[in-house]
């Protein structure tokens, strides 16, 4: 199982420029999370801070008991080996062919023989659909292939945590869909903890178990996908719908006068930029048929059901509807028990219900894995509630 990453009060600035402050969240082991945020909100800086390439001003990032912010150089070097990172541009060495690029971390960090290295490199190239492209130079292949080569290289040290910086940037929607499927398939195969930072709405809606959002130098929210997908938090709603109407503006944020003017124009029928209203919980991407089921999905169900009562009604409804009838019985819940919840404009529960800009949704609970003793049959996707809608080839075939 992948490692848990506990981030507490992480704060970063460059000189006088604050990037984000007090970011607190936990990446649950073996689950896939997405961090959304408009361009320039510090998503790349966040990833680099998580692996100690940048030094945050304060806060913690703890992996396997080691705080990456405070630990010694030696510990940092050791702990970094747990991470596989896919940088935005693939970050390949232009003068090395794909084989040597992918072999690089093994030659650098291990004492493996060339025979062992060959076996690993070919396996990772096959996993990422690059078999046969070993001798190509990065400049000779497409952007999608470069991304997959970067991913193959991120995989060679068997990472427990995989960080992907905008894996979709520069790719067309079809190649993005293949890459999303590849990440889910990888997760099914190696059960690594995955964090994807992106501003791609479709990736955010269909890929992760958990979603977070950075905006105005803060973590607006972080929690189970159902919470953000049904959220009426204006920033989250605007972003997930790709609309101009809302707090996010051309540069970063806008004032209330401009918001009112834009709302007036939209009310008068002027197109607000979105193509459809996509509020609601859409089915999540499933591993390609034939691959193992994702262990993270099972663990997440147990975890989320424990904190269900703390979530807004629309999110509760979305979660319950995604369970199979057998699971609903096991957890003692029924769909429509929260009738009308989906249309509630505000969370009705009190206490631990998330508030605007809380940024601390279920952070205390998110990583607590209940010992529910699950060993029942594999959950079967239900028609229309999370079934495998996405037809795709096995890993290693087709794609960009
Ligand atoms: N090494 C650095 N030194 C100074 N400022 C930086 C550095 N790296 C990033 N920044 C600034 O941090 C902000 C966030 O950048 P970035 O993380 O790249 O945003 P995103 O990935 O969300 O688009 C930007 O204003 C950028 O100019
Ligand atoms: Mg970036």
UniProtKB/TrEMBL annotation:
Q: Which domain of life is it from?
A: Bacteria
- A Pfam family (short name) is ABC_tran
Supply the alphabetized keyword list.
ATP-binding, Nucleotide-binding, Transport
Q: Which InterPro entries does the UniProt entry name for this protein?
A: AAA+_ATPase (IPR003593), ABC_transporter-like_ATP-bd (IPR003439), ABC_transporter-like_CS (IPR017871), P-loop_NTPase (IPR027417)
Family annotation (CDD domains):
ABC_Org_Solvent_Resistant (cd03261)
**Span list, region Disordered:** 280-300, 340-400
List each copy of the ABC transporter domain by range.
5-241
Listed GO MF terms: ATP binding; ATP hydrolysis activity
Tell me the first and last residues of the signal peptide: none
Please indicate if the UniProt record lists Iron as a keyword: no
Query: Per its record, how is this protein called by name?
Result: Phospholipid/cholesterol/gamma-HCH transport system ATP-binding protein
Organism of origin is: Prauserella shujinwangii
């Amino acid at each position: 199982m992948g490692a848990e990453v506990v981030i507490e009060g992480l704060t970063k600035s460059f000189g006088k420029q604050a990037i984000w402050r007090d970011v607190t969240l936990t990446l649950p082991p073996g689950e896939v999370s997405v961090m959304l945020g408009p361009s320039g909100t510090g998503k790349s800086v966040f990833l680099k801070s998580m692996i100690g390439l940048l030094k945050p001003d304060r806060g913690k990032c703890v992996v396997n008991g080691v705080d990456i912010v405070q630990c010694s150089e030696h510990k940092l070097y050791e702990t970094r080996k747990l991470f596989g990172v896919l940088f935005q541009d693939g970050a390949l060495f232009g003068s090395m062919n794909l084989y040597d690029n992918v072999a690089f971390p093994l030659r650098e960090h291990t004492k493996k023989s060339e025979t062992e290295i060959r076996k690993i490199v070919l396996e990772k190239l096959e996993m990422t659909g690059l078999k046969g492209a070993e001798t190509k130079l990065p400049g000779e292949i497409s952007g999608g292939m470069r991304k997959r080569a970067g991913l193959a290289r991120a995989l060679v040290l068997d990472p427990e945590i995989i960080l992907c910086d905008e894996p979709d940037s520069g790719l067309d929607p079809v190649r993005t869909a293949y890459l999303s499927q590849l990440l889910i398939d990888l997760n099914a195969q190696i059960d690594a903890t995955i964090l994807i930072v992106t501003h791609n709405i479709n990736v955010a809606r269909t890929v992760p178990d958990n979603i977070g959002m950075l905006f105005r130098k803060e973590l607006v929210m972080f929690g189970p996908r159902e919470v953000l997908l049904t959220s009426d938090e204006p920033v989250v709603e605007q972003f997930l719908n790709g609309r101009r109407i809302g707090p996010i503006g051309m540069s970063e944020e806008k004032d209330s006068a401009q918001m009112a003017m834009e709302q007036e124009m939209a009310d008068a029928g002027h197109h607000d930029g979105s193509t459809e209203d996509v509020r609601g919980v859409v089915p999540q991407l499933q591993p390609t048929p034939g691959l193992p089921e994702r262990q993270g999905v099972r663990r997440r169900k147990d975890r989320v059901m424990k904190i269900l009562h703390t979530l807004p009604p629309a999110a509760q409804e979305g979660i319950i509807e995604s369970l199979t009838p057998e699971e609903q019985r096991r957890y003692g819940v029924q769909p429509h028990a929260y009738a009308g919840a989906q249309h509630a404009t505000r969370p009705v529960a009190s206490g631990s219900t998330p508030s605007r800009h809380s940024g601390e949704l279920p952070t205390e609970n998110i990583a607590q894995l209940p010992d529910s003793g699950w060993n029942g049959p594999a959950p079967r996707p239900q028609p229309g509630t999370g079934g495998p809608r996405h037809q795709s080839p096995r890993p290693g075939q087709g794609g960009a």
